[in-house]
Fold this sequence. Notes:
It is built from 3 helices and 8 strands; from the N terminus they run H-E-H-E-E-E-E-E-E-H-E. With 157 residues, the protein is an alpha+beta fold. The chain has 2 domains: 33 residues; 112 residues, CATH 2.40.50.140. The chain has a 5-stranded mixed beta barrel with strand order 2-4-5-7-6. The protein is elongated and about 80 Å long. The N and C termini lie far apart (48 Å). 26% of the residues are buried.
Amino acid sequence: MKPRSRRALAIGAGLAALGVAVALVLNAFRSNLVFFYSPSQIAANEAPQGRAFRIGGLVEDGSLKRDPGSLTVNFVVTDMAQRVAVRYSGLLPDLFKEGKGVVAQGKLGSDGVFVADQVLAKHDENYMPPEAADALEKARHGQLPQGAPKMAQGSSR
């Protein structure tokens, strides 16, 4: 084999290896994306079925129900325009309260109940995740846009 063809073969193999590496990185990145949806977007069927995403809003007053003898809780998340029932099994954050902001991560069940595997509560009186605050404000004014989710964030999985 001539040096010229050997060099071309090495360059081609290097480019192929680089292409495979880029494809693997992009696939891993795509599988770790977790999008944020408001209750209004979920009610409009914009949220994915069978894929994890985040929902945010306020815990509706009077909606918190605990199953006796287990760590399972049911509550409703609202953006003041729509409501979504949430089921979570585990310990809730200390700052979790009715009427306060919450972000839950999980999947939407076939029955329309959001099954959370993680629940985050705001950490002080002035903080709410920007995407949740924006969705609440737009829902109050009836201005929720149709289309893509508000924001993507990497998952810790």
